[in-house]
Amino acid sequence: MTRDSFPPDLIDLHLAYARTYRALAGASPGQGARLRRDLVRLHARLLHHPYWSLRAGSPSAGWAALRHQLRAGGVGERGGRGTA
User: Fold this and answer.
1) Residues with Cβ < 8 Å from 66, sequence gap 6 or more?
2) pLDDT tens track of the chain, all 84 residues?
3) Can you tell me the distance from the alpha carbon of 19 to that of 67, in angstroms, rounded to the nearest whole number?
4) Taking the model in full, what pTM does it have?
5) SS3 state at 34
6) How far apart are CA 66 and CA 11, in angstroms?
7) Helices in 1-84 by DSSP H: which ranges?
8) Phi and psi angles of residue 61, each rounded to the nearest 5 degrees, phi first
């Protein structure tokens, strides 16, 4: 599967999820509730993205493949799309 096989909006959702997760890890007590709500909202959008209904296999396996591909491509957990 090539990186282009994942729709750009799904990649963007995953990157937003990763940024929010990192922000929550270092959040001050006053920011935690908002970030947790954002994380839950993003998680729901990721899991219910229309792409998963078109892909063979489980959504969690696909999500793992997406994460792996983004990390291998130098994009993902640390930066935005197009950054290393």
Assistant:
1) 6, 10, 11, 14
2) 444 588 999 999 999 999 999 999 999 888 899 999 999 999 999 988 999 888 877 777 888 889 898 888 756 554 444 433
3) 13
4) 0.76
5) helix
6) 8
7) 8-25, 32-47, 51-54, 59-72
8) -65, -40
Is the Cα dihedral 2, 53, 60, 57 positive or negative?
negative
| Closest to 60 (Cα-Cα) out of 72, 51, 52 | 52
CA 18 to chain centre: 6
What CA–CA distances, in Å, run from 36 to 9, 19, 44? 21, 12, 12
Q: Which two tokens stand for residue 67?
A: 């994460």
Q: CA nearest 12: which of 84, 70, 74?
A: 70
Q: 72 with 40: CB under 8 angstroms?
A: no
